[in-house]
Design a protein that fits this description.
9 helices, 250 residues
């Protein structure tokens, strides 16, 4: 006997959508662009209620244990001297950030991260470096990947600053992890207002982003290979596959 068909009222679907529930936002500032080699300098997690207002904020300043390149310090404002004087040991910070994130994931709270593959790859490398458990990283919501899907033919940069300007989100103190985390969450809320197709459970949207990121990377790789036959664009999301981290900077 076939299972009875279950109908879901539109208002029930809306109630299950991520944008009607509590959520959090996460951002890192680091020592460099290579996500497998970069060390955490600052980290922020902002927890928001169902209405999008801030319930709590968590911030960390770490001594990464390595020199912070001048190019990186110019971006986020944290010098090696400041990190060594005011920052806490890297392992303590990584452990606390990881525990806070895992607590959110265990509670089913979606975590918003702009260009999530960078931040969660840094976290994965840092956890491995310090012998800490890896995160489950589910569910994650990434305004960068989502925007490339809903606005495929948008021209111009897709930086956090550019998209915030487009959607009317005020981004103050850009490149501070706290400001960037909150702006990412507000950006995703604004995008949800423009694209009702994003009104779905966080778990469903997470799984869609895995496919979207892979397809986006494949398309960009095909474009690059027209002039650079050996070009490789990684599409793993929300974390890049581990490999030996080569030293990379800005």
């Amino acid at each position: 006997m076939a299972a009875p068909e279950v109908s879901v009222r539109p208002d029930s679907v809306k109630a299950m959508s991520w944008h009607t529930q509590a959520r959090a936002a996460f951002d890192l500032e680091t020592t460099g662009r290579n996500s497998r080699a970069a060390r955490i300098v600052t980290a922020s997690i902002v927890v928001l209620g169902a209405d999008g207002t801030v319930d709590s904020e968590h911030e960390w300043l770490a001594d990464p244990g390595v020199e912070i390149p001048a190019e990186a310090a110019e971006v986020h404002g944290i010098t090696t001297e400041k990190a060594r004087t005011e920052g806490r040991p890297a392992r303590e910070v990584v452990a606390e950030v990881a525990a806070t994130l895992q607590g959110l994931f265990d509670a089913g709270t979606p975590v918003v991260a702009f260009n999530a593959a960078y931040d969660f790859t840094v976290m994965a490398a840092e956890c491995a470096r310090h012998g800490l458990p890896q995160l489950t990283r589910f569910p994650v919501l990434d305004p960068y990947v989502i925007n490339k899907q809903v606005e495929k033919y948008r021209r111009g940069k897709r930086t956090l600053g550019a998209l915030c300007e487009q959607y009317g989100v005020i981004l103050t103190e850009a490149h501070s992890s706290a400001a960037d985390a909150l702006a990412a969450a507000q950006l995703l809320d604004a995008m949800a207002s423009s694209f009702p197709e994003l009104h779905k459970p966080a778990a469903h949207l997470h799984r869609s982003q895995v496919d979207w990121s892979s397809a986006q990377a494949a398309d960009f790789q095909a474009y690059l290979r027209k002039t650079k036959p050996a070009a490789v664009v990684e599409g793993d999301w929300p974390v890049l596959a581990p490999q030996e981290a080569s030293r990379g900077g800005f």
